[in-house]
Amino acid sequence: MKEIIKDAAHKLGIDTIGISNVTDYSYMEKFLSSRKNNNLDCEFEDRDIKKRINAKNLYPDLRTIIAIGLPYGEGYKIPSSGNKGLLSVSSHGEDYHKAVTSLLIKLAEEIKPYISFKFLPCVDTSYLIDKEICKLAGIGNYGKNSLIINQNKGSFIYLGYLLTDIETETDSVIEKDICGTCNICVKGCPNNAIFESGGINAKRCVSYLTQTKKYIPLKYRESMGRQIYGCDICQIVCPLNKEVLNKEVNIVYSDLLVDLEELLNISNQNFKKKYGHTAGSWRGRNIWKRNALISIGNLKIDSMFQKVKDELQNPSDMIKIYAAWSLLKLNKPFAQDILYNNLKYENVDVKNEYLKLLEAEI
Ligand code: B12
Ligand code: SF4
Ligand code: SF4
Q: What is the pTM of this model?
């Protein structure tokens, strides 16, 4: 059976594949609880740890997990265009949730002629712990940046798996420490989110900051640079990704650049038309727009002062307060006058935020 699965995968061009029959991850409960208690987790993970640590909670008939890694980011160089915003490489091309899910379904169809079985494809959005599941299937091991690194493809792999009721042999787990004394990502992370000892503080991660709807602390905003969605730094600097990044390929990554002025004015409908196919678009126009305001401030695009000022009239309080921050970054004395003047007609929340910003070192 194992050979049939591997052959089916290779037929579809999947060369990062592994099989596991471990369904119970209760040994992770302590780690996950301590992460939660120390406020190192985030709202994109299910709060119910008990539910997460057993895959049979999602698929009671589960016997075998067929995991795959879909490589991406080959030949990627950060596009150097001064005044544009940037999406992470995972936003290039078709949304990876769709791409990996459809590949998993094709894989199941390829296996079906040999055995009748039931399956459930999972890619990112289930409450299960994808990295641990794929590690146990032998796809790779954790790097200090907390990502699963495959020995041939590096960490630029999307993870996905089929939960199945098949009974078969499994692959062995890679326990080898892959980072050794390297700590390049720890030093390279723009917001010091990676612990020297490995693992990350999710709430400091720029990728998290670009996605959260929660208030972004002032001290973290500069670290967001010009990111509109996601962050790739700890993968770009990783020596284990060198080969993938240096590959000579014919892929153009200019779709990762975002016109910031256009993003400030874009309608919901046009946002969906232009960015709806990307993995990052699920966060919606307003969060991208908030990140555009932060980027404009960080990039110090003086020519956009008036456009940012106009956003102080936006009906959304969220947009107003980030526009105020951006304005102070662009021209502090002018911005101070405008914000003091606006205090008289703003609601209590916005007024308090303006007062905080006026006193802060920006
Ligand atoms: C929540 C989440 C996030 C959060 C938290 C990330 C995180 N590190 O957990 C945020 C928003 C920050 C995020 C960001 C990104 N994410 Co995300 N995210 C998830 C999600 C939904 C859950 C992750 C989770 O449960 N984490 C909790 C625990 C289990 O993980 P952990 O804290 O990292 O702990 C482990 C390691 O740190 C390690 N560890 C702990 N201590 C030490 C010490 C040493 C020395 C070492 C080596 C390891 C190590 O062991 C722990 C487990 O035993 C998964 C999808 C899913 N359903 O699983 C995708 C997922 C993890 N994300 C993914 C991706 C691609 C990203 C981004 C690259 C996207 C981007 N370009 O912006 C960034 C990468 C940031 C980073 N360095 O992790 C991929 C990872 C693929 C891979 N190769 O590993 C996943 C698996 C989605 C998928 N199916 O492809 N993400
Ligand atoms: S994704 Fe960016 S912010 Fe997050 S850990 Fe990696 S380098 Fe740091
Ligand atoms: S940069 Fe170094 S420490 Fe970080 S994940 Fe890569 S090999 Fe490990």
A: 0.97
